Amino acid sequence: MKLSLGISPCPNDTFIFDAMLHGKIDTEGLSFEYRLEDVETLNRLAITGELDITKVSCGALPRLFVHYRILDAGGALGKGVGPLFIAKNFSSISELNPSTSSIILPGSYTTAHLLFHLAHPDFINKIFLPFDQIEDAVLNGKADAGIIIHENRFTYSERGLNKLEDLGDTWESNTGFPIPLGGIIAKRHFDITLLRKINRVIKRSLEYAFEHKSSLPDFVVKHAQTMKPEVMQQHIDLYVNEYSLELGSKGRAAVWKLLELASTLHPIPQNSNFEVFVD
Predict the structure, then answer these.
(1) Largest Cα–Cα distance of the chain, in whole Å?
(2) Out of 117, 150, 235, 266, which one is annotated catalytic?
(3) Domains of the chain and any CATH numbers
(4) What pTM did the predictor assign?
(5) Is 150 one of the annotated active-site residues of the chain?
């Protein structure tokens, strides 16, 4: 059975999915036609239900339950992994004016946008760009500040940018939960046997990756663009962890908390009563 799969080209995703996409593990009769896109593109594809399985921002989940359920494996949760609020010409948030200061974010449906909104609901002048363009945009004066994610958290300071806030720290101190950044979802019309099989295969793929972690797969290196090997490894170490193998009760509780708060930015459709997780 062939299924469509959407993932980002970031090292955490290519690391997790490499083995199942390239015949390194038993996929239990499943094959995958994958598509590599930035996470905001994946969010928008999921809103229309285009892909069978896809990585998405947890911040977009309220819009997606009509088509999908959340799998237990393959997600990105953790502590110390949050988006960073950065600027070039400012050293504290108090120097910014919520009414007039412009902020660049990596996408309307991203968890980064949701966390920023929860922490700073008064900022209204928002610009949305792909995540890998935000550092340069702030450096070039296209906005007063920006929210960076992924590998940019390892490079911003050497490029002369200042950290104003770690939005992950703010989330953790306010809620006590790890940050649910991204999750893997699958079509809700699939029967439970197929959904559980997909979940097993993703978990097996990650277990294989962990067992062979001493050498990064070509799939990871090829799609990491100009990233240095040590940054690739830092990226994987930060975003791939025990929650990527299995959400568990704490991971699910974190997602529920985010869903509760996400309704302030992206209201859940009325009269919706969807199964959220695959048990």
Answers:
(1) 57
(2) 150
(3) 2-78+178-262 (3.40.190.10), 84-175 (3.40.190.10)
(4) 0.91
(5) yes
